[in-house]
Amino acid sequence: NRKNEAKYKYVPQVNISEHEPRNAVWGENFPKEYQSYIQTADTSFASYQGGSKMRDVLEEDPNLVILWAGYGFSKDYNQGRGHYYAVEDIHNTLRTGAPKGPGDGPMPATCWTCKSPDVPRLMNEHGIAEFYQGKWADKGEEVVNPIGCADCHDSKTMKLTITRPALIEAFESMGKDITQATHQEMRSLVCAQCHVEYYFNKNLPGKEGTPYLVFPWKNGMSVEDMEKYYDEIEFSDWTHQLSKAPMLKAQHPGYETYLTGVHADRGVSCADCHMPYKSEGGQKFTDHHIQSPLNNIANACQVCHREEANKLAENVYERQRKANENRLKLEGFLVKAHIEAKKAWDLGATEDQMKEILQDIRHAQWRWDYAAAAHGASFHSPVETARVLGSGLEIVQKGRIKLARLLADLGHNAPVDMPDITSKEKAQAYIGLDMEKLNSDKEVFLETVVPKWLEKAKEREAKMTPQINK
Amino acid sequence: NRKNEAKYKYVPQVNISEHEPRNAVWGENFPKEYQSYIQTADTSFASYQGGSKMRDVLEEDPNLVILWAGYGFSKDYNQGRGHYYAVEDIHNTLRTGAPKGPGDGPMPATCWTCKSPDVPRLMNEHGIAEFYQGKWADKGEEVVNPIGCADCHDSKTMKLTITRPALIEAFESMGKDITQATHQEMRSLVCAQCHVEYYFNKNLPGKEGTPYLVFPWKNGMSVEDMEKYYDEIEFSDWTHQLSKAPMLKAQHPGYETYLTGVHADRGVSCADCHMPYKSEGGQKFTDHHIQSPLNNIANACQVCHREEANKLAENVYERQRKANENRLKLEGFLVKAHIEAKKAWDLGATEDQMKEILQDIRHAQWRWDYAAAAHGASFHSPVETARVLGSGLEIVQKGRIKLARLLADLGHNAPVDMPDITSKEKAQAYIGLDMEKLNSDKEVFLETVVPKWLEKAKEREAKMTPQINK
Amino acid sequence: MLKNILPQKHSNWRATAVFLIAIMMGLGLFMAKEAEIVSYMSDDPKACVNCHVMTPVYNSWMHSSHREWASCNDCHVPHDNIVNTYYFKAKDGLFHASVFTLRAEPEVMFMREASQEVVQDNCIRCHVQQVTQTKYDGWIETHGANRTDRQCWECHREVPHGRIHGISTIKHNIAPIPTDTEQTVIPEWLEQKINQDKQSPHEE
Ligand SMILES: [Ca+2]
Ligand SMILES: [Ca+2]
């Protein structure tokens, strides 16, 4: 009909093939969108807690090293930056280790899922479960284009589209049908392909052994619902090095927390704030420079709020400060709880005595992480974030009082000495990480393995010339 | 000139004298405002946690009996209802006891301050400090008209006006000049005469011994600022009966918390929501039926929000539920802390051992009360309310861990038995209140003393006939 | 005062504005005083309430969603260019003032057509992004077709003066009058008492 015609009418310069992963190729047809997309390479903006600047989160807050002791995140954790860096950053992070080649390294192939438009291409070529199989390093030469057009768009119609099976399956698990999503919902759902809590399920019937990407939404998306989900299947991401608690790592539940805020309630989508319209030479287009809206208040906020930019930024910062205040309190208690639990083990506590305590630590830290890991949550949904932090403060109290009594029973009735963790280095030394080795191994990997990956990819892609229209 | 003519365009039926306390007399001139004011007598509306219905808060939540043990509030505490009942309710509450006559009873005259337009009249006749002197019962026959016109209006111009010295003095203490307030600010400041945290200062230089009404705003209005204020002057409202902690009672810091919310930030005043415009027969006027805006969403909210009424109510309830969730958690811990502290005393703890713990209890409960006592705060400022509750959860944890260690030292290393406080009656019995006597004394007071007060007031007022214009 | 009213020095239409104001003043001291006509050039809504007939609209605006965002002139005066702004103001000022002085104000006023166009343009000026972007579909349904051929306030009937119009619709006003500075919010008696208290601390 005419409406659709109007909406998606354009004269393509090139014929973009269905699984074209190279953003520059799409850029031939859509220069404005591409040019703005390319700006996600800019790393000059820093806000109170966000922005595109590289921010070493462990350095800013060494407590985290203790919270994640025994898990990859204690080695290296930076705040996310522009989509342009998705591939580069997964190469760089110490969490992915220094694989020497295929089959090596700590991480599964599933890690690639949210980093590149090569992913839908590969899933199409090999199958979904097949994509998730094997090591991360196995696909190093296949996944090289950072997040881009083919992740969100249909190459024929340019319509927004869902390219990640995990989101579709998650909707199914909730008894919902994602194909019924409205256009406005799609403007958030394309983001919900990645900005969500996830885990790797190795026990899916028929796919045993494959770290299959799953969003734990079956019972709902609240912190309690997902906790219940994980408790029921007795899942844990890792066992804590100090406390031995069976831990959960919350990963950026951005979409889930956003949904509980007033903007979602009023139908405001992710794209409304992170991809507002922009005018250039009398032409309007969607700004694909996805970033902190605080670097773009005029377009991102003032369309709806005719407040001064300063005031709007201050509104955001105020909510973030208030959330951080209680987050840091909870965090401090969690650090204590892990170290107190270690003390109890050291003094001879039994599994039985520790069981409830460890469960409390698991639940309290899960809540802390749920509130902390989605970097936007303290603005997207300040009231829910505060509620979750409060519930974490409740649980950690219960656990620590049990610990105090247990320690007293074991002969230690006094505050437990805390290590010096005033810097990232000190904290990492305390948990016994050999950072020098990790870093030098990584260097070797980046200097030897990665260049080969990129070279092979170049060769491969050289054969995929797009068809130019005349 | 014509402008002034405009000011007095209506033909006054009666000449209202400067300190006319009788609302019905003002009502002769302003029937619509009066008629709507009179509707604050209606007690049929109940929302999730508010409304005009009589709600026995102790019955709804018997924990409070423990939190306030040793203080009047453990005897009787109802949620505030319409202004119409201000005088009746202060007669009725068990907190004011059963005075036999002048000079008797537990409460000072200062209690009257926020209950009636007779107050400015008496302050004018006798002086401010003089008004605060003596017992509450001393002025029983003088203060009989519930909150009304003369509390907020100038009788000549009908301009909004401040009639309570405490607010003026509080502004001075902050180095601010209330006479600079804009018209829009006045639409909240008239409420800030009463809907604020207060205490009775008996040590004001030159006024020693008089329980002078003071708003503790000198350092600011946040929960920390006021806490600091009270700590500095070592003020406490009472000593807790169980824990012996030097307690603070937060009283409805409605204005203070409102100021931290987004509505205040956007210039929305109390009157915008609680006294919106109303249309009747082609006339618009300010609805003086001050009540829960949820009983009047169309006028109170939909002026600004084009949302459905149900949705707006649900927005409010959601914020209230989330606040209550954490408030109840903090509350539960506070109950435990008081009873654990009692146990410690029973086991022979020393003042020295208890000092820090009691200070923690004081500060944690102050935060709880600050968040709980302003009934609107969880909507007026949900983020600040959550922040305050979180900080209470932090402090109570510190205190209880010290308590657990102290108890272990004293030979009790196990959870402390909690009494049965599942109903108001049981909780009151636990703290040893003789409710039967309190109630029967009150009955006698209401049947013998109060009727005399009202009778004398009638005689007195009969002499104050308003001057009718012809 | 003139400094605030007049456009920037050196702008070439400053003369026009001065000229127009001069005409207005020429209408006579009596009228200027009566109508506080000069204050009509100000952007302060209180300027409009100098005429009591404007108080009902002032008060309804005061109770509207727009109080914190849009003053009278934001809606009722063109903002397309600054010459137009002052020209329209002066013209309107003269018209209103004449009617007012003659006591010919109707019970229920209506915007003249010229004013309507101005207002409509101003609604769009502020809300253009909200009502034209298809991307806000999810937030504001159905603005596409409707907005172009109808007046905004056909639907948004409450914006900003409410549904009831007419100069008797608001009987008692406590709208502030800008020239009225003699009163403060503290009544005299209370100020006295407080000062008394301060001077001679109470002795028992
Ligand atoms: Ca970032
Ligand atoms: Ca109530």
Automatic annotation (TrEMBL), chain C:
<keyword id="KW-1133">Transmembrane helix</keyword>
<dbReference type="InterPro" id="IPR051174">
    <property type="entry name" value="Cytochrome_c-type_ET"/>
</dbReference>
<feature type="transmembrane region" description="Helical">
    <location>
        <begin position="12"/>
        <end position="32"/>
    </location>
</feature>
<keyword id="KW-0812">Transmembrane</keyword>
<keyword id="KW-0249">Electron transport</keyword>
<comment type="similarity">
    <text>Belongs to the NapC/NirT/NrfH family.</text>
</comment>
<dbReference type="GO" id="GO:0009061">
    <property type="term" value="P:anaerobic respiration"/>
</dbReference>
<dbReference type="InterPro" id="IPR017571">
    <property type="entry name" value="NrfH"/>
</dbReference>
<dbReference type="InterPro" id="IPR005126">
    <property type="entry name" value="NapC/NirT_cyt_c_N"/>
</dbReference>
<keyword id="KW-0813">Transport</keyword>
<keyword id="KW-0472">Membrane</keyword>
<dbReference type="GO" id="GO:0009055">
    <property type="term" value="F:electron transfer activity"/>
</dbReference>
<keyword id="KW-0349">Heme</keyword>
<keyword id="KW-0479">Metal-binding</keyword>
<dbReference type="InterPro" id="IPR036280">
    <property type="entry name" value="Multihaem_cyt_sf"/>
</dbReference>
<dbReference type="InterPro" id="IPR038266">
    <property type="entry name" value="NapC/NirT_cytc_sf"/>
</dbReference>
<dbReference type="GO" id="GO:0005886">
    <property type="term" value="C:plasma membrane"/>
</dbReference>
<protein>
    <submittedName>
        <fullName>Cytochrome c nitrate reductase, small subunit</fullName>
    </submittedName>
</protein>
<keyword id="KW-0408">Iron</keyword>
<dbReference type="Pfam" id="PF03264">
    <property type="entry name" value="Cytochrom_NNT"/>
</dbReference>
<feature type="domain" description="NapC/NirT cytochrome c N-terminal">
    <location>
        <begin position="15"/>
        <end position="162"/>
    </location>
</feature>
<keyword id="KW-1003">Cell membrane</keyword>
<dbReference type="GO" id="GO:0046872">
    <property type="term" value="F:metal ion binding"/>
</dbReference>
<dbReference type="GO" id="GO:0022900">
    <property type="term" value="P:electron transport chain"/>
</dbReference>
